[in-house]
Design a protein that fits this description.
It is a single chain. The chain is built from twelve helices and eight strands. By secondary structure, it is α/β, with parallel strands linked by helices. Strands 1, 2, 3, 4, 5, 6, 7 and 8 form an eight-stranded mixed sheet that branches. Helix 2 packs across helix 12. The protein is globular. The two termini are 19 Å apart. The N terminus is likely disordered.
Length: 320
């Protein structure tokens, strides 16, 4: 009796082939453009951070041509392309969460999600991120954000000229409306969190020519998108000074995420071009809220993300 095994998804095949041949950015011969797209979602970035760390542990980072990140996914992308990606483990450190999530600031009229302090202080003094190494990495870094004027998803890479711009781009990508303070200014424009317009940054990667995209999802399969009951009220009040386009983008978040889920599920079947594959945490892994701070939950989330990536590639290697 012959046991048939399904061929690996083409995204996995190309990544492993590149790793096996020692292919590096700038000297490819396979004609492919392979992108990594990292979902964020506040402290759910702990999950995709664990996934990114696992890709580093597997030695697959140089198999990508570009990394696209949305919100906390952009922060993960920067760490992954830095000289010390092992510090992605800091997501599981409750002191890290306490620095970023400051619920007490609500009574003081200050940002609840303090991305500015995280990037401008913690990442320069407490847990230094080598920003220069991110800029020098031959794997392109594409942090996304939402243009306040148009409500459209925007690739900030063309606006990043130096380390200061890179820090602004990271802050802009994770600048949650209402929760993280005012919009971030970069290149004469104002930006809010990428999740307003593109929370799963695979569409931008495809629009810019990617033939293969590996998508790191921070949500489990069971985490479905539901429209916020407060969103219309927020759009009419707190966001009333913003453009109609931005408010419409804000109100359309759940519908876009549902559409993304449906499209990505089809891509996962591996049929046709482009080749897009998603990795999600196990359904039994803990649910991680956007403002989660519990150390045990965060540690489990980081582990679940890493386990999902390791399991995906281990399964392919066993079949081979």
């Amino acid at each position: 009796m012959t046991v048939e095994t399904s061929a690996p998804h083409d995204v996995i095949r190309v990544l492993l082939q590149r790793a096996a041949t020692g292919s590096v950015p700038g000297s490819r011969t396979d004609g492919c453009r392979v992108a990594l797209a990292i979902e964020g979602g506040g402290m759910r970035g702990t999950v995709s951070g664990g996934m990114a760390l696992a890709l580093h542990e597997l030695g697959l980072v140089t198999s990508f041509d570009a990394v696209y990140g949305a919100s906390a996914g952009a922060i993960n992308g920067a760490w992954l392309l830095s000289s010390n990606p092992d510090l992605l483990r800091r997501w599981a450190d409750p002191t890290f969460a306490d620095t970023l999530i400051r619920t007490g600031n609500l009574m003081r009229g200050r940002p609840i999600v303090d991305v500015e302090t995280l990037v401008e202080v913690v990442y320069q003094t407490v847990s230094p991120l080598d920003f220069a190494s991110v800029l020098a990495n031959p794997v392109e870094f594409h942090p996304l954000a939402t243009d306040v004027a148009t409500g459209e998803s925007t690739d900030l890479r063309p606006l990043v000229r130096d380390e200061a711009d890179l820090r602004l781009a990271m802050r802009a990508s994770a600048a949650l409306p209402l929760l993280a303070g005012p919009a971030v200014q970069l290149g004469g424009r104002r930006f809010y969190d990428a999740g307003v317009s593109e929370s799963v940054p695979f569409r931008m990667a495809l629009a810019q020519g990617a033939t293969h995209v590996l998508v790191l999802r921070s949500r489990r399969h069971t985490d479905t998108a539901r429209p916020s009951r407060l969103a219309p009220l927020i759009a009419r009040t707190a966001l009333r000074r913003h453009t109609v386009a931005f408010r419409e983008a804000f109100l359309g978040r759940a519908a876009r995420l549902a559409a993304d889920d449906e499209l990505l599920a089809g891509y996962d079947l591996g049929a046709g071009d482009p080749a897009v594959m998603s990795i999600r945490p196990d359904a039994a892994s803990p649910r991680v809220g956007r403002l989660a701070r519990d150390g045990q939950v965060l540690a489990a989330a980081l582990e679940a993300g890493g386990a999902a990536v390791h399991a995906t590639f281990a399964a392919v290697r066993r079949e081979a």
